[in-house]
Automatic annotation (TrEMBL):
It holds the Pfam family RVT_3. Residues 19-92 form the RNase H type-1 domain. PANTHER family: RNASE H DOMAIN-CONTAINING PROTEIN (PTHR34023), RNASE H TYPE-1 DOMAIN-CONTAINING PROTEIN (PTHR34023:SF4). It comes from the Eukaryota. SUPFAM superfamilies: Ribonuclease H-like (SSF53098). One of its GO terms (molecular function) is RNA-DNA hybrid ribonuclease activity. InterPro entries: RNase_H-like_dom_plant (IPR044730), RNaseH-like_sf (IPR012337), RNaseH_domain (IPR002156), RNaseH_sf (IPR036397). This is RNase H type-1 domain-containing protein.
Length: 130
């Protein structure tokens, strides 16, 4: 499959968000980061794509370099339907004129969504025997 620029432009914002999220976590001094990605295609790109002629190659290489720094980082696939925090934050971002914003604490609407996702995550771990 040949990827053209119009096709990838829809995925560029996700890659940019992944890159800046990792960079922010690094600058804040986090030592362990787990990234949940709801696009299997992006996960595959970051994990194994040949970036030499890839339209998003520079972004993918930046993300790989960030993940290979001296910290524990991992990527995991999550279903879009189960990623309510990201959905909430994306909708919040659409309501602001700011290009980039950092929340130092969860908004009132985000906290209950986050707690519900944590419960689901822990239940899933128990079912898998982790």
């Amino acid at each position: 499959m040949a990827l053209t620029r119009p096709y990838t432009r829809f995925l560029d914002p996700t890659l940019e968000a992944d890159k800046f999220g990792l960079l922010l976590a690094w600058r804040q001094g986090y030592k362990e980061v787990e990234c949940s990605v709801d696009s299997k295609l992006i996960l595959d790109w970051i994990s194994s794509a040949d970036t030499k002629y890839h339209p998003c190659g520079n972004l993918i290489e930046d993300i790989r370099a960030l993940m290979n720094r001296r910290w524990r980082s991992s990527l995991q696939h999550t279903l879009r339907e189960g990623n309510f925090c990201a959905d909430y934050l994306a909708k919040l971002g659409c309501k602001t004129e700011s290009e980039f914003m950092v929340l130092h604490s969860p908004t009132a609407g985000l906290l209950p969504i986050y707690l519900a996702e944590e419960v689901q995550y822990e239940l899933g771990k128990q079912r898998r025997g982790n």
